Amino acid sequence: MKKSTKIILFTVLTVVLLWQLWIALYFMTEEPRYAHNSRDNSRVNPHHDVVLSSKDALEDVEKFAFDLTHYHPKPFAFISEEQFNRQIEKNKEAIAQNETITTLDLSLMLSELTGLISDSHTSVEIAKIVQRYALPVDVVYVDGRFFNIRQEGEIPYMAEIVSVNSMDSETLYDLVGKYINTPTKSGIDRFVERNFSNYIPLILGYEADYKVSYKDDEKISTIPVELERFYEKKRFDGRINDYVFEYNDLSIPVLELNSFSGDNDELNAYMKTVDTFFQENKDAKQIAIDIRNNGGGSDGWGRYVLNYFLGDTYKGYDHFDIYVTDYTRAYYTYQYQMQFYRLKIPSIFWSIALNIIPDCKLYRDILNAEDGEVISVGEMVFNNPVQSEKRYKGKAFLLTSGETGSAAIGMASLFKHNDKNGCIVGQETNHPESFAGNFSVYTLPHSGVGYSLPCSYSIAPDGAEDERGVIPDYEVKRTLDVFEDGRDPELEFILTGLNQTEI
How far apart are CA 3 and CA 85, in angstroms? Predict the structure, then answer.
């Protein structure tokens, strides 16, 4: 056998053996576990309304308060620490007055606390008891009033809901609105509207008798109503849709983005739809990107769209702060390990890669930092991977609403501060432009109630840290007739009404 042939065979065998060794090591690798994601419900099933002793409930409240004040990056951005502590003491006193409390009542109590903090990524899972009921109405909230938009039932279509059990609309708004985790009026309005029918019985009790007063043709009527089984209604149809909107002989291509989350197959389908949309509409004078129903997900999904019409580089956050605690290290350890696990890299190499790969520096800094340290990532600038000649050159409109949240707000913020040719149309976003993120869900030891806590804080590109969300360039106020007629006021406004601010 020739020497060259031997070398080739030896090389092939070595590669095969190394590959087999790699595969063997990978199959010995266990999927990473998140150390602090303690969803151990062996003692408590959070899907039932369990009765707790006041002692156990008080320990859960203290654990919850400790975590919020010690692990949250900015718990007192919108409320003083004194206000928070007063509410904690008030809750403890209420619990101590009775021997027991249900997990439902406890979760409502804790949810009111996160409502005071007003951070969209800090929330409590309202106990999911087996029997959940709702009032037999679907409402919209317009000009401070509730209107029924259900076309079947005892309460007439488009009748104004004047009161429930003698509580007027303002009282009902406050009753439901205190559980939403945002300081923006737009976000609170949409939460109350969406949860009106199920939160009122949840708060007042399923055993209560309910009477609804409504106004129809200027006549006020009061009727008893029976609660119905509650089913979560979909806010949108599909993760991504594209279509042409036509109005008064005018038209505009629309890319509707309803979610920025999904598995790899769903991401690939999403990217394919985005690519096709911009290929087919590269010569259109104007397009609309609709994120009105997008509650967020991964920032990269939004940037994938923005890359088609922003510049060579564009500014993201002014800065990004990571507040280091043991929860933070657990979060980033898990995220780091999962990246390698998804790439099918055996765990034996994870620590080696952490110490030698330059892109892992942030992970190294976090894992080596002391509790209480703040690791700040400075101005974040993104390089656009889409070649200039392939980018869309027309005018882009971005549609936002009080449902636009999290990563979708990040997209709106990038659009607002970097696209000088486009503009935003609709309503203020669900929560502030600067916000906490990278959250995980934890579980209280006795009640099993889940709660989320973030570990980072991103600052908007202009450096503003206030209570305002992304403000549209053109606000389109909601009016009752658009619900009755099935219209799309934002798209109508783009096509025919840019010389006014209300239609």
Answer: 80
> How many residues in the chain?
503
- Close Cβ partners of 124 (under 8 Å, ≥ 6 residues apart): 107, 110, 111, 113, 114, 449, 450, 451
Tracing tokens 């919209």 back to the chain, one arrives at: 140
pTM: predicted TM-score of the whole model, two decimal places:
0.88
- Whole-angstrom distance, CA of residue 102 vs CA of residue 125: 14
Whole-Å CA distances, 187 to 224, 264, 502: 31, 30, 20
Q: What is the pLDDT of residues 244-286, one digit of tens each?
A: 999 989 999 999 999 999 988 999 999 999 999 999 999 999 9
Looking only at Cα atoms, what is the longest distance across the chain?
103
CA-to-CA dists, residue 21 to 10, 348, 351, angstroms: 16, 12, 18
Which helix (H) or strand (E) covers residue 13, if one does?
A: helix 3-27
Q: Read off the pLDDT of residues 354-405 as tens digits, 9 standing for 90 and up.
A: 888 887 888 889 989 999 999 998 888 899 999 999 999 999 999 999 999 9
